Amino acid sequence: GPKYLSLPQVTARYSCSRAIVYRLIQTRKMPPPCKIGRMSRWALSDLEAWECGLAKAPFGEHTAVSRFGSV
Questions:
Q1: Which terminus of the chain faces fewer neighbouring Cβ atoms within 10 Å, N or C?
Q2: Angle at 52 between CA 5 and CA 39, to 5 degrees
Q3: Block mean pLDDT (10 aa), the chain, length 71
Q4: In the prediction, which pLDDT does 2 show?
């Protein structure tokens, strides 16, 4: 079945804090997690699709911070 990532796995994947993850979700710059029972999990396929969109950003916007726009 589909693979899901927890918040610690997401923060590790993008080398950012929980606060940045939630700010990206609030500003609709990152896909929101799915609720599985009481847990929040991100579908890996959603994150990979989002990463593909980020990869199309103009050259020079690929550092960890600027890649997300102004957070």
A1: N
A2: 20
A3: 93 95 94 94 95 72 51 48
A4: 80
CA distances, 65 to each of 14, 17, 56, 60, 68 (Å): 10, 11, 16, 11, 6
**3-state SS assignment for residue 27:** coil
Residue type, 23: R
pLDDT for 61 equals 46
> Can you read off the two tokens belonging to residue 63?
């550092």
> Which tokens sit at 9?
């796995």
Considering the entire predicted model, what is its pTM?
0.75
CA distance 23 to 1: 29
Residues in the chain: 71
